[in-house]
Amino acid sequence: MTTPTEPPVPPGRPLTARPGRKLGPILPNTGSAHCAWLQPMRDTYLASGLTLNELSERLRFAKSKISELLRGVGLYPRWEIVCMLAVELGMPNWPLYQLWRQAAFEAHKSSEWVDNCTERTTVLTTTHTAPPLEHRAFRELAENHYTLFAQVFLDDDQRDTAVSDTFDILWLNWNDALASHDTRRFAWNVLRATVMARTPHRDGRPELGRAAFDTAALQALTDPADCIGQVTESLEMFTAMSRLPAGQLDVMVLRRLCGFTPETVSALLGTSLAAVRSDERHATRFLESVLCPPHTTEGNTP
What we know:
By secondary structure, the chain is mainly alpha-helical. The chain has a domain at 32-126: 434 Repressor (Amino-terminal Domain) (Orthogonal Bundle). Helix content is 63%, strand content 1%. It has a two-stranded antiparallel ribbon with strand order 1-2. Helix 13 (224-241) packs across helix 16 and helix 14 (246-257) packs across helix 16. It is elongated, with a radius of gyration of 23 Å.
């Protein structure tokens, strides 16, 4: 499968000065799934030049409530008000709904609650509009590669959800992605953040242990005793890999676990081939120092 080798050409996007009082930050306890749609909505609002007063007048909804929604304050918001605000801000409805719905379930809302929220917006909610052409082309090129990366950290259901959410988030932020230095790098950062938000962590480091059971080395073995030894060896390696800096970890996962060439990794990450090779070289040296420390002779100081 071909990877995206050149990012789409960014469009011109003039910066819009927004008058009025500055919007407060998102509350730190807001869940990652909630932030996945809330942050793009905030960014769109801030770039629109509209004020909370203007939105309040247009939506006939209290300014304080709009402010709370945009900061993640209070109970998880119902779809009706999110949809109304999205329409005023000109945001694509379908990816926003998909992300809102996913976050609702993660906020322990029932299917009945979700359905009740969408009764008055059935047409808008069920209308699956097409994403921009460039977004669709990018997804066709990158989706399978993103899935292979995600499955190193997540089970099948979580993997598919993370990849789907990634492209929905990209759709909401597509203008920003095109205006960035490299669309591929922008997209990779979205994927990584989405995957890591769902990945179990230990001592602040992502766990890669489940990947031990999918390695080619293990699948080639038939003797149970050999399998146990390979799993132990793999777990040790993955534990060491989890200590790598983010960039080096990504390169090693893509190179050693997904089996991609350096050129493919460079295209996926939106970084230079030299940087990929440098990250792989430094990561390999670190792993060797941890897994195969130099032997000390008798009388030498450790």
